[in-house]
Amino acid sequence: MLFFTLLSFAVMGYHPGLEDDGIYLTAVKADLNPALYPHNAEFFRLQLQATVFDSAMAGFVRVTGIPVDWSELLWQLISIFAILWACHGIARRLFKEAAAQWAAVAMVGAMFTLPAAGTALLLVDQHLHPRAAATALILLAVARIIDRRFKLAIALLALSALMHPLMAAMGMSFCLFLTVALNERVNAWVELLRPVKSAGVECEPAYRVSSGGGYLAAAPLAWVFASDSPAWRVALKAHGYYFIDKWAWYEWLGAIAPLVLFWALWRWARRRGETRLAQVGLAVFAFGVFQQVVALAILPPAGWIRMTPLQPMRYLHLVYFAMALVGGGLLGRFVLRKSLWRWAAFLLIFNGGMLIAQQAQFPASRHLELPGLTPHSDWLEAFDWIRQNTPQDAYFALDPYYLDEPGEDYHSFRALAERSQLADGMKDAAVVTQVPSLCDAWLKQAQAQQGWAGFGLADFERLKHQFGVDWVLVSSPAPAGLDCHWHNRKLAVCQIP
User: pTM of the entire structure?
Assistant: First the structure.
């Protein structure tokens, strides 16, 4: 298990401060040092009110004395190990052959950076994310459900809700479907309905039992029921993957094909007398069909637009985990078996392919951005200089779409430079969709930065007068009139006079 943990980590890469970590790592650092982020802290604090992740990580750093960078790396490895451990536990309950069990683990580990259709979710992120901890707890709960240890499963699901409520809601929903599928009476009832071809009829009992689970994510989110605003809709439109009617055909294929495969798995395993595997296949199929119906019902254009940021299509995250686990197990049983050469080819092809894809996705960054290494790009070099050489209360403005700039590779300024920042047009826009109270402030700041590429001294002075911004990160050479303290070949760090 340790081997597969380290192999998975080496293949997926490690990028602290990347994408969502711009919220989570920033919050952890703010908990540890309240003097950081005196401006715009609500753009990361408010979204974390429903999770204990940041406070738990900050508490771990305080108790152990391990620096935050090393603590994040340690818990990333622990999360990977826990997920693979849970997958092995499920595989042992589905496959009797050791080769199948370990092939399931190997396949899941290789596929960690596989996107779940059009959801913008990876199975596991390349940085520490509360979704990884929640996933490990959900998968451990699944194994306990199979063993009918329901009290322990409920406790694990409750813990997952403390980490990531939305993913926990999906886990609860799936576990309800799995509980129904494991019920002998339900299996007998399904057997009686074998002549009925309608998939909707076959999964109706699970629908009735678990319909509440699919909506658990919405219960504590009172903003869902509030009226939307023009600013909120602007932020929402910045994230096209929220709208399933705009998905490409291959994204829809990635959503529907796994459900067809699990329907086929259920029929195939039942004919072979593999009851447990058939039950899990039925549970994944019924769960997916139900959640897909829910998503189509509540998402635009036919549904309720306020539900869109809940991303009900994220149910595919668990479906893809199940697909990798079962697919790997079947590959181990029928193809790999005990052949050393087949195992070597399997590990090389799947891990090598994913490694190449990850290196291509972040061409300007080290594949493993480990603590203590010197910055590898112009952007990270600038962030590092800012962190070490500017006042903690410095308030920065930079290109609102800097995350998408060549060579930036989606690294967060707040998380890595550890300074306050005027709202950006990408990550902060995603936060606003889930925290509508920030809409007006976000839109005002975003509009004030339009035309950034052509900004001169007068524009920067306007930002200073309007918002209190006193530092900027701009392209090098910097516009005339700024008081610049540092630069590299691409960027300059300057004060506004």
Answer: 0.87
